[in-house]
Amino acid sequence: MGRTVCSWNEWDPLKHVILGRADFACIPAPEPADDFRVPEDSEMGGRYGPRARRSIEAANAQLDAYARMLEKRGITVSRPTPIQWNRATSTPDWSAETMTGCMPPRDVLLTVGHEICEATMSLRSRWFEYLAYRPVLNRFFEEDPEFRWETAPKPRLTEVSYRHDYWSDAVSEDQRRQWVRDKVFVTTEEEPLFDAADVCRTGKDLFVQLSLTTNVKGVDWLRRHFPDHRVHAVNFPDDLHPVHIDATFVPVRPGLIISNPQRPLPDEQKKIFEKNGWEIVPAAQPAHETPPPLCYSSVWLSMNCLVLDPKTVCVEASEVHQMEQFEKLGFEVLPVPFRDVYSFGGGLHCSTADVYREGTCEDYFPAQIEGF
């Protein structure tokens, strides 16, 4: 048996990924963690529940094509096992009318070195999402004697885990902006909460976004769980709906990050990058003014790219400005049609979870900032 699982950063040569599926996906019912509003004029007719069959088929067609492209480049692609997401679920503390789906895996699975950790998740509709990945993780466990399969403590997600006035229409934009600056989000600090997609991996250093899906106690849990790493909490005060870091702050090779110009990292938090010679460049403007129908992500999925190695990157095929920027930065750009997948939970990076990248755990930030 050889090593199956190993990945320390976002750019070393990629050899194995998990890629999501759209089967049986749902728009979940409103819950304390988020207010899922389905437009009356959409194909869902204002109703939550199973997504339209034709949209699922279109998304799966693009996901399957993405898998074939990666495999042609010598990358192994594993897939989750979808379950019937359109069913009511419950714990002793709560019940939910539907689940969501298994696209994207990046939200659920955090790969750090030889470990894959199942994140807590902060939405009740996503509490059981880990089940779709258990068959493939069990296979890795059988194949790789050094693979560490971990599960963060499953949260109770009781009423006290949320601020119930957070999504009120009475809350002004100014108030919401102040909350974000004060690092006040919909989740309380009742228990550790984090989504894996809020973690940016750069070798020995992990940068974790405080957001609607990750709280301070979640960052503290990650810090204790990875004692050999330096875990830094970051936030982006201009983002009024912060969910996951990979459409905001994306390292693409050692020393280079593309950053969302509409929600920049505060100057104080930039110091660690400046001190270690990293360049932060504004990402190109998205090619689209609006996201696809029933997509709950922003147009900045344009920068949600998958780096295959320090010279090669996958970019959504219609994002011409982002492709042009990467070419100017010296990358070979692989265009991948993917907008039919966006509404299922994200872009080319979100839709995957690393299993294996060549390389070792390097220290890219030897000069640390005290207190950060």
Main traits of this protein?
L-arginine/glycine Amidinotransferase, Chain A, alpha/beta, single chain, 372 residues
List the helices and strands and how they pair.
Elements: E1 14-19, E2 26-27, E3 49-50, H1 53-72, E4 76-78, E5 89-90, E6 95-96, E7 109-112, E8 115-118, H2 134-143, E9 148-151, H3 173-181, E10 199-202, E11 205-209, H4 216-225, E12 230-234, E13 249-253, E14 256-259, H5 267-275, E15 279-282, E16 306-309, E17 312-316, H6 320-328, E18 332-336, H7 339-342, E19 352-357
Parallel strand pairs: 1-4, 8-9, 11-12, 14-15, 17-18
Antiparallel strand pairs: 1-19, 2-3, 5-6, 7-8, 10-11, 13-14, 16-17
Q: What features would you describe in this structure?
A:
The protein is 19% helix and 20% strand. The longest helix is centred in the first third of the chain and has 20 residues, at 53-72. The chain contains 7 helices and 19 strands. It is α/β, with parallel strands linked by helices. It is globular and about 45 Å long. β13 and β14 (256-259) form a beta hairpin. The strands form 7 sheets. A 3-stranded mixed beta sheet has the order 4-1-19, with helices on one face.
Gyration radius, in Å: 19 Å
Q: What is the architecture at the second tier of CATH? A: 5-stranded Propeller
Strand order of the largest sheet: 4-1-19
Classified in CATH, the superfamily is L-arginine/glycine Amidinotransferase, Chain A
Give the N-terminus to C-terminus distance in angstroms: 40 Å
Number of helices: 7
Taking pLDDT < 50 over at least 5 consecutive residues as the criterion, the unreliable ranges are none
Helix and strand sequence: EEEHEEEEEHEHEEHEEEHEEEHEHE
Query: Which structural class do you get from the secondary structure elements?
Result: alpha/beta
Give the assembly state of these chains: single chain
Strand-residue fraction?
A: 15-25%
Overall geometry: globular
Q: Output the CATH topology.
A: L-arginine/glycine Amidinotransferase, Chain A
